[in-house]
């Protein structure tokens, strides 16, 4: 049993982890930058230690300072949350060498899924389908052109490290490929410190469907069903739901096949703890492995709502050596859950971040409404980090009920002092194609063009 745990993160996920620890009677230590001195996670933790200035590379990305804080506080474990160092194998190694339990997969498992190109090779070894593409990193534009000629346009240039849509470009011809290749490499180097890119066939208008897995230290692995994350803007997820409308209505037999494929990936990597295997699905029902996220996901609440399983609590229990308490046959899916990410951004100014002081803050409630947030009236949203204010989740007996609750909850959510994406989320919920569950990753691009732009007119 852990007595004390350090949360190596900030914002809503830090709050989420601290709450799970309190329920397990584990004392918590928050770390924070100078910009986060008044953050909610600092106030909720049992102890708090400042580790540096506002920029992440002077605080939340400093392994030496985090480990020093952990040793000063004499903690048993570190939970990295998501982002920052959550998928950093070296950080996991350092924790292990300091006899501090890392809440996540082992450094070895992370190495097996080191980057997207390596993960593609592992998927092929596990006989899980991948999009046609390069065998690994493409070192020059001549190599990129050769791959494109072999698999045919359009192609996607993708950074091997990181995510969030950075270091990604679509090319439809040789000219755009050469330009996109160099742009993606430069962007990836700046974002991840790794300029490596690979190339794969671009599946047009795909569906983005991911499977949540849990694996204990005894070799037992289960999946907890799927989440549909196709509502994206610039490859960043905006709305997530479970179950997937596509798998519920059009391709019901895919759930079992994709679930088995997700488990195969985890088995091949000797994976432990929580993880997410991401796929794309085309309009014919073919699915392809994209990558594995080696951490808890931002969108994990929708899975918790439909399965009744607390994923963060399970993460901690697995790290303490507890075996899985569920078999695959135990997992039951009930109802429908939707999550909307609420960001401090201006949807009428190309989603420009809107940091600043929250003046009024009124959050929605009621049956079937959940809000994971670190925000409150008087809180100042820093300009140094992700602009997320919180995640609004609704649950209903079916998709229609979940959507109706989300529309109602969004209409009640009031924040002044900063711009937010609440009105944009409401536009998505009112779109007839979203209501019917007929959408792909190009949904938002279509929403923001043509006649559908009317959904945003008159909002603020």
Summarize the helices and strands and which ones pair or pack:
Blueprint: E1 4-7, H1 11-23, E2 27-33, H2 40-44, E3 47-52, H3 63-73, E4 77-79, H4 89-97, E5 101-102, H5 107-112, H6 116-125, H7 141-151, E6 155-159, E7 168-171, H8 174-192, E8 197-201, E9 207-215, E10 221-233, E11 236-242, H9 245-249, H10 254-268, E12 273-281, E13 287-293, H11 300-307, H12 311-319, E14 336-343, E15 345-346, E16 352-353, E17 356-357, E18 361-362, E19 369-373, E20 380-381, E21 388-396, H13 399-412, E22 414-415, H14 422-430, H15 432-436, H16 443-447
Parallel strand pairs: 1-2, 1-4, 2-3, 4-5
Antiparallel strand pairs: 6-7, 6-8, 9-10, 9-12, 10-11, 11-14, 12-13, 14-21, 15-16, 17-20, 18-22, 19-21
Helix pairs in contact: 7-8, 13-14
Structure description:
By secondary structure, the protein is α+β, with helices and mostly antiparallel strands. It folds into three domains: 4-103, Rossmann fold; 132-201, Dna Ligase, domain 1 (2-Layer Sandwich); 207-456, D-amino Acid Aminotransferase, Chain A, domain 1 (2-Layer Sandwich), CATH 3.30.470. Helix content is 33%, strand content 25%. The chain contains 16 helices and 22 strands. The strands form six sheets. The protein has an eight-stranded antiparallel beta sheet with strand order 13-12-9-10-11-14-21-19. A five-stranded parallel beta sheet has the order 3-2-1-4-5. The protein starts with a strand and ends in a 13-residue tail after the last helix.
């Amino acid at each position: 049993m852990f007595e004390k745990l350090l949360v190596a993160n900030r914002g809503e996920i830090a709050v989420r982890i601290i709450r799970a620890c309190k329920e397990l009677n584990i004392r918590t230590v928050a770390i924070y930058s100078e910009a986060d001195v008044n953050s909610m996670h600092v106030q909720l933790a049992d102890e708090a230690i400042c580790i540096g200035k506002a920029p992440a590379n002077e605080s939340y990305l400093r392994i030496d300072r985090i480990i020093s804080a952990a040793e000063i506080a004499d903690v048993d474990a570190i939970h990295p949350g998501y982002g920052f160092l959550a998928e950093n194998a070296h950080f996991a190694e350092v924790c292990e060498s300091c006899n501090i339990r890392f809440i996540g997969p082992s450094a070895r498992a992370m190495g097996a899924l080191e980057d997207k190109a390596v993960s593609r090779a592992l998927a092929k070894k596990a006989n899980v389908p991948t999009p046609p593409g390069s065998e690994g990193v493409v070192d020059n534009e001549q190599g990129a052109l050769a791959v494109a000629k072999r698999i045919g346009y359009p192609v996607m240039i993708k950074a091997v490290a990181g995510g969030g849509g950075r270091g990604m470009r679509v090319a439809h011809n040789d000219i755009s490929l050469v330009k996109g290749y160099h742009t993606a490499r430069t962007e990836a180097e700046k974002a991840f410190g790794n300029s490596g890119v690979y190339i794969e066939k671009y599946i047009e208008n795909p569906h983005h469907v991911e499977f949540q897995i849990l694996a204990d230290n005894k070799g037992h692995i289960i999946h907890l069903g799927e989440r549909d994350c196709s509502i994206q803007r610039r490859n960043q997820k905006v709305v997530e739901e479970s179950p997937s409308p596509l798998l519920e209505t059009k391709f019901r037999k895919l759930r079992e096949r994709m679930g088995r494929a997700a488990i195969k990936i985890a088995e091949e990597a000797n994976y432990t703890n929580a993880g997410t295997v991401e796929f794309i699905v085309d309009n014919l029902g073919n699915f392809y492995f994209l990558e594995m996220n080696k951490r808890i996901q931002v969108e994990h609440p929708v899975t918790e709502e439909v399965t009744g399983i607390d994923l963060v609590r399970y993460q901690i229990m697995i790290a303490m050596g507890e075996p899985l308490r569920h078999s695959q046959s135990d997992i039951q899916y009930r109802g429908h859950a939707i999550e909307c990410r609420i960001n401090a951004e201006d949807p009428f100014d190309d989603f420009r971040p809107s940091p600043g002081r929250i003046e009024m803050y009124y959050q929605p409630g009621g049956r079937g409404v959940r809000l994971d947030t670190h925000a409150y009236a008087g809180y100042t949203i820093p300009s140094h980090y992700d602009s997320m204010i919180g995640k609004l989740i609704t649950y209903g007996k079916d998709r229609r009920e979940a959507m109706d609750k989300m529309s109602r909850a969004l209409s009640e959510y009031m924040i002044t002092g900063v711009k937010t994406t609440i009105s944009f989320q409401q536009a998505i919920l009112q779109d007839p194609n979203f209501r019917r569950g007929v959408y792909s990753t190009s949904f938002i691009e279509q929403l923001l063009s043509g006649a559908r732009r009317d959904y945003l007119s008159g909002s603020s």
